[in-house]
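Collaborator request, handled under Task 6.
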Amino acid sequence: MNDGSQELNKLSIKKQNCFKISLPINIVHDNEYEEKLELKLHEYLDFIKSGIVKQNINIKLIEEIVSLLKSSINLYFNLETNSAQECVDKIIDIVENNCKNDLISDPFSIYKGAANYSREHCRDENYYKARVESSCFGFNKKDMLHIPFDKRSKVKAQRFSIPGCPCMYLGKSSYICWMELDKPESSRFNVSAIKPNMSARVLNLAYVNKELFEELLSYDSKSVPKEGFDFSLLKVGETHEEYIANYIKNAVLVYPLIIATSFTVKEKDRDFKTEYLISQMIMSSLIKKGYDGVAYISKKSKDNWKYFPANLVIALIARKNNKEEFLSSKLSECNHCKPVNYSEYLMIGNQDICYPYILNGSTKNCKYPFASHPMDYLNSSFERFDRYLNAMMYYELKK
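Structure tokens returned to the collaborator:
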């Protein structure tokens, strides 16, 4: 076989070994979810069992998680809702017991694995909260928190929100907030920068993406991931190989959950959304265990590492500690700036004169999809808006 044929053969093998599940998974009708989910979970299991993965992983645990996910949906549709929830509870138990807090931790460990985004580098960075209103004039400083407990009737089902139970959704960029709100007109788009509670613990469903996952699964001790890797959480005495092996072990366990919660449905005017079932049961499990929420990649964005972390979303649980509370006391510990209307911001001639920009270091190297092409987020008006908000004065919500 000549050199050209050998190279073609290598390319063919590499293509066959390629991890083919791209997220989010788009379907047309709600009733396609269960069948499509089973198909994707089987594809995932086949990939894991194929021998491509060079690390020692617990395939039985992955099979158990896949089985529990399928059983949960089936039980729910057969009106055995408590049993369906118990299946998801067991999955969270498996994650909790086998991942050594790497997947359930403070919001800043979501950067683990991302090139150039270390824990310390991102510790003081902001998230963003947006609302769609004709103006932010007259907003109370607490209007940018969650829906108050005395207005539960307004809390509808969202991806990780149980109807009637408020959550606070934060984006890692004003851009992803805009996408999550279905691209409102700039005159109706109002944003605050928020510093989240440092003690919050979230389930990290943004732990890995397709490109990093595929690269890590073929990792061996003779290679280092080509895009670089964040070793800032390396434990004393732990080698790079041990660190990545542990990362892969966690990634293969959590990926079925990422698949199950990464569907979008084109069908409109639905009173019930099947693709939210697993997400909401995950949130119920986390509430029972005393956790604070979940981090995930926005389903309005492709699961592509070049867009991370600008496409990151965190849903934080609003807990009521006493009957008199209208807002969560824990979430009220967040600091935020006054909301700014995006259209009014764009009217400022030279924003540098008004405020010195403060850069979000984690998003400076990422991209965002503009007209279907990846563009540098650093060059976008949204990124400049982020920095404008970062430089404003912050207030404690609880005061």
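The cover message to the collaborator said: "Residues 240-260 form the longest helix (21 residues). Confidence is low (pLDDT under 50) at residues 5-16, 112-123, 353-357. Please let us know whether this matches your experimental observations."
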